[in-house]
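fyi for ur records
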Amino acid sequence: MSQLSQRPADPVVGERHHHESAFGHVTGSALYTDDLVGRLTGVLHAYPVQSTTAHARLLSLDVEPAYAVPGVVRVITAADIPGVNDQGVKHDEPMLPTDEIMFFGQPLAWVLADDLDAAREGAAAVTAEVDELPSLVTVRDAIAAESYHGQPLHIDKGEVDAAFADAAHVFEGEFEFAGQEHFYLETQACLAHVDENGQIFVQSSTQHPTETQDIISHVLGIPAHEVTVQCLRMGGGFGGKEMQPHGYAALAALGATLTGRPVRLRLNRTLDITMTGKRHGFHSSWKIGFTEDGKILALDASLTADGGWSLDLSEPVLTRAMCHIDNAYWVPNIRVTGRIAKCNKTSQTAFRGFGGPQGMLVLEDILGRVAPQLGLSARELRRRNFYAQGQDTPYYQPVRHPERIEACWDQLIDESELEARELEIEAFNAGSDHIKRGLAITPVKFGISFNLTAFNQGGALVLVYKDGSVLVTHGGTEMGQGLHQKMLQVAATTLGVPLSTVRLAPTRTDKVPNTSATAASSGSDLNGGAVKNACDQILDRLRQVAAGILGAPAHEVDISRGIVSALSSPKTVTWEELINTAYFQRIQLSASGFYRTEGLHWNLSQMRGEPFKYFAYGAAVSEVEVNRFDGSYTLRRVDIVHDVGDSLSPLIDLGQIEGGFVQGAGWLTLEDLRWDESDRPSRGRLATQAASTYKIPSFSEAPEVFNVSLLDKAHEEGAVYGSKAVGEPPLMLAFSVREALREAVRAFGGPGRGVELASPATPEAVFWAIEDVRAEESRAAASVTEGQRVPS
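which gave:
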């Protein structure tokens, strides 16, 4: 067993602890970026001048009327940017436009004023002269116009054409599904000021402080060491704060340098929704071939991501979608082509799962559609195609521990009493004409690591003070997911001290440099490895000191729960005594830790390699009840078994599984982004701008019964203390909700019929699916009647 994954005899990891800020969250004492404004004086408030057209040539901006508004101090336009006018990583995303407007709601300028009302009024006074241009609003518009970002990507494995020729059953179809708004509780927010040393200090609600620092640096044309970015905590991120915060932070920093006053920028909900990127919607066309016994033989698919106006993270999102189209199923012959559509709307960005859910949804939808036509239950069709030992992915990565897919599946079938419930549902549906129930089970296989190998590194700084207390700073950010709590438990376990001994400091770039985003479900792996590395360095020095105190070899020294002992010594000392002795012996009591994920390699041009450290597995059973008359439905029960390895903090992991599942169910069944596709002046405007028009899950959508179990005996060798990532994989467990709705809709018709279901499967979409099924049933009945008539 590796040193990284081996646990000591009495570890703090594995214990159930609440979130380290739980009491602060509940009482309101936990501070967020915008709460810090009151600590500064003379703060200016920023408000954007937004475009009112989806695509246009920007001829001029008249900012003078804004200065007539009392309280307005400065209007910032592209001409004020001293460095590079770009807020993206692909240099295709001007922070402020100079000549072309690319989406409805795009900020054209920012007004800084003494208060928010004055800034808003000043922004309303700015006028833009534009020359409107044709706009592409939907992914289908872009496909028809051949409007794409970059070059296509290709996966091609096996002999696809020959396999189709040998297939006993071949199906073809199309599938288009929507994106998703992040709807984090805390909107985009930042606060910038220039300190007494000329250092630009930015508090930012960001998942990627280092990249926020980078963007500020190049927008202002200054070196990175003149910029410090701190993230205290976020009120949710879900990927929406991986790339999107950088431009706002750079604007605030620019405003602070231009005016000499602190600048606060916080978007209200409508601004946030209309200006920030979403989960990518996708269009897919596909062809699939099966053997006579229902084994997948070949898949040929195209995936077109709705990228919006600039690239943002669309390329790696598309890459991960293509790499996850197989989900938990072996596809021996596969060809996938991926494109990124360029449209005139917000630049779509990272969202929990990062393309993986979109790729997996395509194949799950296919299996749910075609199972009846193969004469199989969807449950049996899925199980027949699970990965087995020795098989590899479409990008040639061997699948380790594929037996865990079936282990999750079998444990779940047993715990959920699935087979008995299937019989109960069949009996219920037979006696109910207007209400039907459906039940479905779906698996998840999700790769953990960044596809770009360079991002798989983490850093930490651990300080042990003379009194024995420990302060940990790491490169990960806290957005409510419990990463800080896990890092506290990792540090306490490694050093062998009680949890109360360790405290965490906010994430900031002048303490841990060059960090990766807290994303790709890798926060615990990367930062946990770095924290453990730093603690191990300190521990190696302390063992030498302890050996002298105890009169025993250093390799025998054990520190557990604050007591220092050795096998061959009757003596013990406390942690505090050991630290005091080490200080007077001039032993270094701090360390900078580093971790890099080993064994990864990826060739993007060939779409081939081993980009993932391991796969996380899981399975979910969902049961729904659907009303024929309006398509409304209730999620009656959910059962989940999920693989988190040896959990670092089980209570945190359970919360992540529940939250991820509900968010996934929202994407698949409720959350319906709508842009104006008309030819009116409002074309390209996002119509769903608030909670009144964009429905996210609430308590009423939560399942009445919600059972979550962790997979037994799931230690992951080579990961920190045998744990596995948990942030993203549970979201895809919600496929079971959509597939349960499909089963309920199918129950309104006859056996053996495929059901096409929109995504999101809103009550309206479910209603029309029921109508289609019933109409098809009526046509089939009429056809039988016609065939039975005897000529007179």
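The CA atoms of residues 488 and 502 lie 6 Å apart. thats all i got for now
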